Amino acid sequence: MKKDYTVVGKNIRKLDAIEKAMGAATFTTDIKLPGMLYGKVLRSPYPHARIVKIDTSKAEALPGVKAVATYLNTPRVKFNTSATSTFTIPPLQPVEDQYVFDSVVRYVGDEVAAVAATSKKVAEEALELIEVEYELLPTVFDPLAAMKEEAPSLHHCEAGKNVPGEKIHIEMGDIELGFAEADYVFEHTFKLPVQKQAQMETQAAVAQVSVDGKVTVWSTTQTPHPSRRILATIFGLPYSKVRVLNPPYIGGGFGVRIGLSAKAEPIALALAMLAKQPVKVVYDRKEDFIASDTRHSGYVTVKTGVKKDGTFTARKIMGILNSGAYCSWSAETPGVLGAMGLSIYYCPNQMYDGHSVYTNTTPAGAMRGFGNPQGMFAVDSQVDIIAEELGMDPMEIRRKNIMRPGLPWVLPYPCQSSGLEECMDLGAKAIVWDQRGKQNQDSDTIRRGIGMAIGTHVSNAWPFCGDYSNAYVTVQQDGSIQVASGVPDMGTGTITTLSQMAAEVMGIAFGQVGITFADTESTPFEIGSHASRTCYASGTAVVAAAQDARKQVFEYAANMLEVTPGELDIENGIIYSTLTQEKNISLGQVAMEAHLRGQQFIGVGRIIPQNAPPYLAHFAEVEVDTETGKVRVTKMVAAHDVGKAIHPLIVEGQLEGGLAMGIGYALSEEIKYDDRGRQLNNGFHKYMLPTAMDIPELEAIIVEAEDPTGPFGAKGVGETGLVATAAAIANAVYDAIGIRFFEIPLTEERVYRALKERK
Amino acid sequence: MLKDYILATSIEEALVCLKTYAGQARIIAGGTDAMLDLSAKKITTSCLLDITKVKELKKIESMDGQIVIGAAVTHSEVKNSDLIRTKAPLLAEASGSVGSLQIRNTATVVGNVVNAQPAADAAVALMALGAVVEITEDAGTSYVPIEEMYLGVGKSKVDSTKQMATSIRFPALLPGQGSAFVRLAQRGALALPMLNVAVVLSLCEDKVEWVRIVMAPVAPKPLRALEAEKYLQGAVINDELIAKAAKIAVSEATPRDSALRGSAEYRKEMLEVLVRRALQQALTTAR
Amino acid sequence: MQKKILKFKLNGELMELLVSPSDTLVDVVRDKLGLTGTKKGCGKGECGACTVIMNGQSVNSCIVPAMQAMDAEVETIEGIGTSDKMHPLQETFIDYGAIQCGFCTPGMIMSAKALLDGNLSPSRLQIKETIAGNICRCTGYVKIEQAVLAAADKLKASKDK
Ligand SMILES: Cc1cc2nc3c(=O)[nH]c(=O)nc-3n(C[C@@H](O)[C@@H](O)[C@H](O)COP(=O)(O)OP(=O)(O)OC[C@H]3O[C@@H](n4cnc5c(N)ncnc54)[C@H](O)[C@@H]3O)c2cc1C
Ligand code: FES
Ligand code: FES
To answer: Per UniProt, which keywords does this protein have (chain B) (predicted)?
Structure first.
């Protein structure tokens, strides 16, 4: 591919931005269909109970109520709300552990019944008329407790008490030998909180069943094709009779709807089938909190063997994550935690053991970073501890041990590019690393500190999970092109980026590209938007499709120009011979000529992506009020190796958004439960995600170590912004006050207590 | 079940309406508490009586050294009022810390008092200012010191189905008087206080003529630190005295464990820091 | 339940319609009048997605009683610009990358507009305070703040002309 790009790398106006700026963009929550009913869900007030009796007659009798759904009149087909069933490759088996409704409820918020009525108010009223008799069952809330013999079993499990799916084991080298070779061995355990995606649009779906039984579901899913599969399976329909699409926009995702939007889709569809009218289900904010996936909380232990000079000889990581009441992504998340936690540093002897554990809490699933921020908080906090013990600068110990292209690692694909060291150097410069440790007087109440941490991630899910993409690029008769890809654009700029790539390959102006997306009916199968894969994997498919179309065009044009296809190139929509410039013709002329002779150029891209490591170095500057324990981040620098920034402004946006979420993870975001399994922080006023007042200066630095496997060299970006943020901030807090934290968030009270204990 | 919504145009009209509905109507101002309480079914009423269009209630006035804030005045109006900023800066600070701009643009200062939450920001500042609430009902008008407005958590002396708090008034700060409002919260906006403290302090020469210290939420209502106030009264104030007074103030408080906003123990220890900081700040502004 | 007549100006146009006493302003704007640009993220005054301008001030339309809009001038995202003549905030939000998922955008722009309508030289802190009640989970706020500053400059420049 040529180097001087005309579209790629440019900050073109995002395709979705005008509609969104004007308030004209449609989201699922905006949809209103003729005859549409409103669905509301009755949720369990108990963390674990059997439904002994459920009487819906009074609710059904309420005027305006058109359907009431319970486990008695909905399909008894087990599924997993996440897309795991689409991705899991034998011999591994996906965990399918829930029904649309069940006779047992396993967490506070679990679905008991749902009503469809002519208005939200009537539906809500009807919920109060449903009479349910519960028999309370024993409960367990902590994953360590849930593994014990005496704990109640939430589901049938093969791998161990309350362990969903498999236990993950990863190994390289000889771990015992590695520890034996070490001069020092460090072991620490870290505790991670429940974080919430808190995307701005709550889970929502509108389901419509046509008179001939064809199903259409508009929803907030990040993965229309896998979601279609889940719905088709539950309701026993051919995939081809189910259409799942975004309408076309989604108010954020961050992993919370990789698969279904919690249960919005199947509930809406079940009600629509019963009522024979379209049904809209929109979770309110509290439902979104209590009854839709969170990030996994849990425990991570890191044991590292190190030589006197700082060289790592062995690293063992153990992760135990809280799955909550259902599996969702709990079989996969511990794997990514381990794989990423091990592969950021080169270390010849490594091992990971990890798994999730069911408890009677809100299910945990995918959230930006997918286990990696949990693991990296532990790993990179410990690396700072080791550096301190050895009297090394945190930058130096990392420089000595970071993974470099060509070295072996635990991942089943090679590391072919890394801009990590450049990220570290640029970041250190921007934060003025040399000031570290020199900013405080003994008498200061407000103490300042600087810290850093590093990380990597994936660029898609292969080969951990099935992952492939398809795309079409169709040349229209006027030479403009239509791209079709099944991925959504949940705000990450997907449709713009994919269109840029198509325009670049086709040699036409960006404005000549139209795109169809996030619709199972008009696009070929495509996994969807997750695993930082969209630009990398879906992009590869679009590039392949465009190349295919371009090849067809060149073959046709070569005939018309009486030259060979190999000598043709295209710029600005003009196809020309690189040998004789006079021989040229516009793409529109070629397309029209072909059309008149009964042909359209249809490029098909069918790819299985490879994988590539993005890299990042985060630097935090903090202030700690030692009288109150309050930590304020005053500056964050994030230097990221993104391979190639197809659209730098979009990339920066991803990084800044990730950083903000990472700052929240580090300092204030946490869902706690009371002793009856109820979430305490179940809304925006109680869940302390950052407001504009809490975000400091953020500096995103883009480094481009192009990867040979990525489209135009690009690597994954979407999740990377918060991989190392918490560790960097905790390390900065250590620099400020000399106290090491093994648990986040670093709330004022936690920090204050530690300060007091030290006194 | 809510059946009617009435927009009052005058105080008289509102009072007539309350009388006609005989306990079935309820006053609503900004609605930032009332609308949520209604949808959570914490309160029920047949009729909402909106007082935000009543012109006479929208004033911030200065009368004979007293500042009067009408019942329809919002936190934003208070925060931006030059009169308040110069004569009661701690109230501007307190109102400015409520929720978010959108909330402050509709929520009223009087509503903040009537809603009777133990840590309502403006109410805490108003108590330090020695504010008095004007309550109007069919039978006439009465004046109740803000400290007597609380019957319990969320329970006000004003019965919003029969009476109207028409305004709140307090003496404007004079030269030689200083004030402070400090707050500890989990984030920079949209966060109820873990603790808030308001101080008004009057110096005579170098001595403390009087001081009011109000702390919350450390009791079912904003709490005066009477012992600490007494301790400082008449004293020539310095850092040591302030530190001691802060300790005394803490001994008067009984904060509770909050799973959301800090343990009792933490709040107690922070209270000392906040009272100290507030006193220091008030002293600085008094000088 | 008694229906009430509500009269108000929405984006400059006089509206007269029947509402329930319990309706909120967002119900009227989104459901009754079909202007779905205004979003609902929490329904409790805690996120700002539903921000509209009422009589010059930003308010959370999800907790404003509909009747309180009586005789008021209400502006929503649909009323501040057209596709051939966008409001400078709409332009700068687009050009500065301040829009990701776009769900917070209408509320965010309305909050910012209320500020700029009265102040063309806001400080960064004033901007932060203005949008502190608008949660954005996508952007990290930085590009939004830059967009508001840039829009202020644009407006100032066009005013100075
Ligand atoms: C998201 C959010 C964040 C918030 N953050 C804070 C915060 O940080 N700090 C804080 O202190 N508060 C906070 N609040 C609450 C604050 O908005 C209210 O206490 C507000 O000041 C109440 O005023 P209002 O006009 O909205 O009262 P309304 O909701 O209209 O009324 C409150 C109560 O008082 C009664 N009432 C009101 N006015 C009168 C009157 N004149 N006479 C008789 N009865 C009357 C009503 O019947 C009702 O019971 C927050 C609220 C929300 C929704
Ligand atoms: S929807 Fe109104 S503030 Fe969240
Ligand atoms: S752009 Fe998605 S919430 Fe702001």
So the answer is: FAD, Flavoprotein, Oxidoreductase
A658 in contact with C, Cβ within 8 Å: yes
Closest residue to atom 3 of ligand 1, CA basis:
B99
Shared-domain flag, residues A225 and A112: yes
Whether residue C132 and residue B101 make contact (CB cut-off 8 A), yes or no, is yes
Shortest distance, CA C38 to any CA of chain B (angstroms):
15
Contacts with B32 (C-beta within 8 Å, 6 or more apart), sequence order: B99, B103, B106, B107, B111, C45, C63
Residues A683-730 pLDDT 10s = 999 999 999 999 999 999 999 999 999 999 999 999 999 999 999 999
Q: Domain containing C100: what range?
A: 88-160
Going from the Cα of C139 to the center of ligand 3, the distance in angstroms, rounded, reads: 6
Give residue C47 CA to ligand 2 midpoint distance, Å. 5
Tokens of A254: 């961050």
| Number of separate domains in chain C | 2
pLDDT tens, per residue, chain C with 161 residues: 689 999 999 999 999 999 999 999 999 999 999 999 999 999 999 999 999 999 999 999 999 999 999 999 999 999 999 989 999 999 999 999 999 999 999 999 999 999 999 999 999 999 999 999 999 999 999 999 999 999 999 999 998 87
pLDDT tens sequence across A9-18: 999 999 999 9
Number of domains observed in the structure of chain A: 3
Of C13, C158, C144, C147, nearest to C75 (Cα)?
C13
Q: How far is CA A545 from CA A282, A492, A523, A630, A715, in A?
A: 37, 22, 13, 53, 19
ipTM, two decimals: 0.98
| Mutation site for C-interface testing, chosen from B98, B102, B190, B192 by largest number of C Cβ within 10 Å | B102
Q: Is the peptide bond before A745 cis (omega within 30 degrees of 0)?
A: yes
- Please name the residue whose Cα sits nearest to atom 3 of ligand 2: C45
Within chain C, where are the H helices?
Answer: 25-26, 88-95, 105-118, 124-131, 142-160
Domain of C13: which CATH number?
A: 3.10.20.30
Tell if the CB–CB gap between A691 and C103 is shorter than 8 Å: no
The structure's pTM equals 0.98
Taking residue A660's Cβ as centre, other Cβ atoms within 10 Å add up to: 29
In terms of CA atoms, which chain B residue is nearest residue C22?
A: B2
Residue A728 CA neighbour count, 13 Å, CB half: 35
**Interval A475-532: pLDDT, tens:** 999 999 999 999 999 999 999 999 999 999 999 999 999 999 999 999 999 999 999 9
Note down the domain range covering A565.
17-24+468-607
DSSP conformational letter for A565: G
Q: Which ligand 3 atom minimizes the distance to the CA of C108?
A: 4
Out of C93, C133, C138, the one facing A252 most closely (by C-beta) is C138
Please report the atom of ligand 2 found closest to the CA of residue C133: 3
C132/B5 touch (CB, cutoff 8 Å), yes or no: no
Using the beta-carbon criterion (under 8 Å), do B188 and A684 form an inter-chain contact? no
Kindly give the interhelix angle for C124-131 and C142-160, rounded to the nearest 10 degrees: 120
